[in-house]
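A reminder from the course coordinator: this example appears on the midterm review sheet, so study it carefully.

Given structure:
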């Protein structure tokens, strides 16, 4: 069972990215799925999470700019990020309580 992150890249401040978290070996529809990020020299922090029922929670630092959603048919969870700031630069990971940490996807916000 694993989750694989993708969709990161280099974007200018104010830009947008959509990260994908694709599951294999299990169905995400029954689990909380969370997005975390870790910036250089900082601890890993929770960005957003979504419950099996679709309830969502967001870190204060991203509220209003980030939306987590799930596509159960494709067994994928997304993180839509808008109005990106340089402080959003980090490696982004998705996680459930039945999967190990993956490689993450790098997001760099810079002009």
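Designed residues:
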């Amino acid at each position: 069972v694993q989750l694989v992150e993708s969709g990161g890249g280099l974007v200018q401040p104010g830009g947008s990215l959509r990260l994908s978290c694709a599951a294999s070996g299990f169905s995400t529809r029954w689990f909380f799925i969370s997005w975390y990020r870790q910036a250089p020299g900082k601890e890993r922090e929770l960005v957003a999470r979504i419950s099996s029922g679709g309830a969502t929670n967001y870190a204060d630092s991203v509220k209003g700019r980030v939306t987590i959603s799930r596509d159960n048919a494709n067994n994928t969870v997304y993180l839509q990020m808008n109005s990106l700031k340089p402080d959003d630069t980090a490696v982004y990971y998705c996680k459930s309580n039945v999967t190990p940490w993956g490689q993450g996807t790098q997001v760099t916000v810079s002009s």
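The mean pLDDT is 96. The two ends are 37 Å apart (CA to CA).
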